[in-house]
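Quick one, tokens below. Sequence please?
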């Protein structure tokens, strides 16, 4: 109802402004503070005060007097509060919200016909996913979910770096060293087993005799040249390593859970000739220069003080070159291209966008979301030497700690359903992994995160367990309601006007806003807005639960309150689903 309410506000406000002879580009519509009963307000009087030659409160009163809500279904009436004009809801607003939210898909917007590719994670297949970069798949997956829920046709892509020096080193090391010379793998999974070769290879290149290193470098160079020349045997050698490591990484990501529609390989754009085409076009640009034994593109005229290196003297391309071809392919196949990148890629992101434009591409469809890395309290971590903490470790710890919390709370549970060990394991996974995802996605991407267990797993604070518990509570109420009646809410003619207490109205107001939260999160590529909404929702529902008995209420309001709980369940379940977090039915 919120979106329909906003449309009505825009219409009646525009008509009123026209009637009094004012023209504005922005209606200045906003959500008022929580202590204001209005759904929306406008501060347009501030902008018109100078033109009108009058104080903002007088201008607001003049405009409000012209606002006609006779034909509005959801806008009840308007009030002025100093320079503000407040728009208050009609009974139809509350009734319509209660009815609309009975639908399990409540909050999902109409399909737009826009196809969007969301590229995220894309970690180099050199070993297990590191906890420091866990923010990428979590933000990326939530972004894809938000865009899908907002009506776009979404494809989730992982861009596989299976070319370049890192993979050449990995392939050489895998074919050179014997497993007996390696330490035991940290886990029995392909990415943990093979990363030992990669680390051994890097150690060898840094410490071995110069002649041995020179011989190894010649083999590594041959692999790189083989890929550049589209040599099938070289390609197969590299893929043997890539696919094994990638398989293990996918198992880890599936635990979050994060899944992909396509794994787009970097070598695709070498093998189909599009990288060579990009190189030819780059060399023809005015800023192309050959210096320091490489072809480079000068970008200082565009505010970027570091050149884009796109071709080595030995004829091999670089990652940015192949990524240019990759993005042109995305532009050809999608209406909108969203990429989630770590903060250390800010320069590369600027180089990419600028170069794509110089190559003749319209780059408005390219949207880049940059994020800061995740730290643990002890500081930043590194994978190159095998000294960091892997995402698997974080998830294992989260599940173990969540299980402890669940077991400690067994004797104080409100619901009388019995939980066996399988139930506890399931809830521990839902809560533990949910805590990790929520703690990461709830922050603005550009803000640094230090992950802290006590905060993430706090059942009483604004955390995933706190929100998940609200969903479990709605399920418990509804289960009991169904057990005590032969008819469900489907057979009841709902009447939201019966729900008149402040707590009921506040909850309906929050439920009504959910579709608008989805819309804004999708438009601004900010899934943390959905997380913020879930906290507000949980707080509001808990006040309702405390002040408004449901199952013991008088018959005249009982069915409506049960329907309000059903509406709440759909709202919070869908909000959590968008964030990629499980909604437990019992905790």
């Amino acid at each position: 109802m919120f979106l329909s309410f906003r449309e009505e506000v825009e219409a009646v406000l525009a008509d009123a402004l026209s009637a009094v002879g004012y023209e504005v580009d922005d209606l200045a519509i906003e959500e008022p503070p929580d202590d204001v009963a209005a759904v929306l307000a406008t501060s347009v009087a501030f902008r018109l005060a100078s033109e009108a030659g009058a104080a903002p409160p007088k201008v607001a009163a003049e405009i409000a007097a012209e606002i006609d809500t006779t034909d509005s279904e959801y806008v009840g009436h308007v009030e002025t509060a100093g320079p503000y004009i407040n728009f208050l809801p009609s009974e139809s607003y509350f009734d319509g919200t209660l009815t609309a939210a009975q639908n399990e898909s409540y909050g999902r917007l109409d399909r737009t016909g826009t196809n969007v590719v969301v590229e995220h994670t894309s970690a180099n297949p050199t070993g297990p996913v590191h906890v420091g970069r866990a923010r990428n798949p979590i933000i990326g997956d939530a972004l894809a979910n938000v865009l899908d829920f907002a009506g776009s046709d979404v494809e989730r892509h992982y861009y596989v770096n299976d070319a370049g020096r890192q993979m050449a080193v990995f392939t050489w090391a895998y074919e050179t060293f014997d497993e007996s010379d390696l330490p035991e793998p940290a886990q029995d999974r392909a990415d943990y087993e093979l990363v030992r070769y990669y680390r051994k290879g890097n150690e060898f290149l840094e410490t071995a005799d110069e002649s041995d290193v020179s011989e190894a470098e010649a083999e590594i160079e041959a692999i790189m040249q083989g890929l550049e020349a589209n040599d099938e045997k070289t390609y197969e050698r590299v893929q043997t390593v890539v696919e094994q490591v990638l398989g293990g990484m996918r198992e880890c990501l599936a635990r979050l859970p994060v899944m992909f529609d396509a794994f787009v390989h970097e070598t695709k754009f070498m093998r189909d000739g599009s990288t060579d085409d990009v190189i030819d076009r780059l060399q023809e640009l005015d800023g192309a220069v050959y210096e320091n034994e490489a072809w480079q593109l000068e970008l200082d005229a565009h505010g970027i003080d570091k050149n884009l290196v796109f071709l080595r003297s030995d004829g091999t391309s670089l990652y940015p070159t192949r990524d240019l071809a990759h993005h042109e392919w995305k532009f050809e196949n999608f209406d909108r291209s969203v990429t989630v990148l770590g903060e250390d890629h800010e320069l590369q992101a600027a180089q990419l966008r600028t170069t794509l434009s110089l190559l003749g591409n319209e780059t408005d469809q390219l949207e880049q979301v940059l994020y800061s890395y995740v730290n643990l309290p002890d500081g930043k971590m590194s994978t190159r030497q095998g000294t960091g903490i892997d995402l698997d470790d974080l998830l294992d710890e989260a599940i173990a700690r969540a299980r402890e919390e669940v077991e400690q709370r067994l004797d104080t549970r409100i619901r009388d359903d019995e939980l066996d060990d399988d139930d506890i394991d399931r809830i521990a996974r839902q809560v533990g992994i949910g805590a990790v995802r929520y703690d990461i996605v709830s922050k603005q991407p550009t803000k640094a995160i230090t992950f802290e267990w006590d905060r993430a797993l706090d059942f009483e604070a604004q955390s995933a367990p706190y929100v998940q518990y609200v969903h479990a509570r709605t399920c418990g109420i509804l289960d009991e309601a169904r057990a005590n009646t032969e008819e469900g809410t489907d057979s009841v003619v709902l009447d939201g006007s019966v729900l008149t207490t402040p707590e009921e109205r506040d909850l309906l107001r929050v439920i009504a806003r959910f579709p608008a939260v989805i819309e804004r999160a999708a438009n601004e590529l900010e899934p943390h807005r959905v997380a913020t909404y879930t906290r507000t929702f949980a707080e509001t529902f808990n006040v309702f639960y405390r002040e408004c008995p449901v199952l013991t209420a008088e018959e005249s309001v009982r069915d409506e309150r049960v329907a309000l709980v059903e509406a709440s369940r759909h709202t919070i379940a869908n909000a959590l689903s968008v964030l990629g977090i499980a909604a437990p039915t019992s905790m």
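The chain has 20 helices and 14 strands. The chain has a mean pLDDT of 93.
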